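Final report, closing paragraph on structural work. Over the funding period we assembled a curated collection of sequence-structure pairs, and we close with a single example.
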Amino acid sequence: MTSTPFSQTVERRFSVVRLWAKYILLVLALNHCILDQATAPGADLASLEFEISGDSIVALGGALQLTADLPAGKGEGPSHIHWASLDTSTVTVDSAGTVTGRSIGSTEITARLVAPDVIGEVVRTCSIRVVYAAITIDPVDSLTGLGETRQLVARGLGADSSIGDEVAAMFTTTDTTIVSVGGSGTVTALGNGVATIGASFDQLETSAPITVRQVAKQVLFSIPQLVFASIQIDTTIAVEVLDVRDSTIVSPDVVWTSSDTSVVKVTSSGVIRSIREGSASISARVDTTGAELPVEVILDVDSVLIDAGNNQTAAAGSALPIPPSVLVVNQVGAPVAGALVTFAVTSGGGSVNGANQYTNESGLATVGNWTLGATVGVNQMSATSAGHSVAFDATAEPGPPSPATSTLTVSTDTVDVGADALLTLVTRDQYDNLLTSGGHMVVFTTSGGSSDGTLGGTVD
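Its predicted structure, as stored:
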């Protein structure tokens, strides 16, 4: 076996070390060159190709992603991008390039390349504008009168639907017969109905309904009073209804009522019918306002004639067996229906029930009943209609005898044995009226005492 000299062995080992040292230096040199491709001192930094990509518009409250695009082979090594906003009240940007809109406006975002051994800066900028995500129209109350105006207001909406400030939108309407709209948002009522208002701003659009409904302020009848000359007559009276802007409401929804449907009736469409003589009022109401129209039913009465019940006789204080009735006629003698007839006692002190009666279709009116006075004699009652009267006569006679008011007298207080005494009965009715005719059966009897005798016949 051949041995190697010690000196050669040491030399070989130093050669290996030298080779490894050269290799390490070569690797370090190569690595330094790769990093300095983007950041070498003295390099023309502006010539480095470096761009920001991403949208330039972000919604208020929304976010967008920016990226820094470095060409292949550039920016290798421990380098990164530092993002910044020139106005953080408008937009903010995080370390990953995520931009968030904070308020409406514009600002710039900078992307600065950071790496070791950088001399100077490699910076790129881009402009970012913050806009609303959508717009909305403030709710508008209904317009209640033609010619009434409202100011429309459009506001911006953030991405989270938060409501922002008023924006200078342009407004339109889908129906110019209902409302007109100025470009600045002044809307004017022209007719009843619902229209759609449109608003546009910064390429954003929205719409909202608007209602015009006239509300009544005043109801006016075309005449001050309505007078009927007969019954069962129909008529209509025009009304004008004004809204809160004093504009006429066409075809208003009127609610009609009568204060006394026994005198006049009115239909839901405003047809008024006379029922009987008398006074009433017709009401026309729209919304919360209305008006009253006085109505008189004054019939064409020419005369009042006795129909039945005249010249009756009855006991004082009793009702006549036949209730008196009258016939009311006009100038040609035709019966007048619905005429008011008032019955009233004029002498004798009696009374009537159902004093106010209306003539029927045959022109007849009958009192409820007539009770004669308590005094024997003539009683009178009148029947009056439209200023024309007729008188009824009746005779009150004494009623049945009443023990309470009749008197019994004896010709002497003492009678001798075998002598006569005269008994006299004077009969009166319950009202103390002396009976003036006979015919009533009277029986005299005796009772009590210790004497007896006989009663003779009676003379009426």
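The chain has one helix and 39 strands. The first strand starts at residue 51 and ends at 53. We thank the funder for supporting this effort.
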